[in-house]
Amino acid sequence: MSVSNSNSQSFSSQKTVLAVLSVLFFMWGFITVLNSILMPDLMLVFELNYEEALMLNIAFFSTYFILGTPVGKYIDRVGFRKGIVTGISVAAAGCFVFYLAAENRSYLLFLLALFILGTGITILQTGANPYVALIGRRERSAARLTLVQGFNSLGTFLAALVGAALLRMGQNKAGMESLDPEAYKAAQAHYVELPYLFLGAVLVLLAIFISITFTRLPKINTEDMEPLIKESFPPRRYVIQFPHTMLGAIAIFAYVGAEVAIGNFLVKNRQCIPI
Description:
The protein is mainly α.
């Protein structure tokens, strides 16, 4: 095989991976926002106060902090491709546990579903972001990350529209206003179940597709790669030894905290806003 043909096939494979990963970034952005959109209805179904409702966010987002380091070590051991497929599978399992939680109206089971889903997203975040950066030319890594993150933002945007349409469909269904309180809560739980069953099925199909498609690409071994910056003194072996990395982590902490807190409180109070 000529060098040009080999390069052409490699470029085609990279485009395929970027396309699939763009769908993946879209999916986890969609799921993250959908959790917030459905929060008031979950408060109704499970009869939650604000403190209990905030525990739903804690169960999901705490996985990033608790499992970030263990997940990184796991991906180092199994590789990026297997790690991504594992993350998708775990997230799909979390979506299916949502169905059981809503069907049984179990608050603790719902917390477990959120934790499982958050674990899957944590694995995906830890594996997919560096994988996107490493599958092509190093100098284009930032452009590739910006591209796939754009699909993540698209997912967050569409999740708000889809979630609002789904909930309005449930609330406007004929006969809903005549139901007694318990029957109404059961009906609302039904509309909470549907999107997660659909998302779980899509994630399962995506995991199967990725496990087949990604076998065409060579395994990326970061230990054999040349670092972008060589530092002889002082020796730095860990990422936390770089000041700009720690400052970036603090900035992301503040940004995500504001984003999640403001967004969730606005959604929780949507019933106070006349439509």
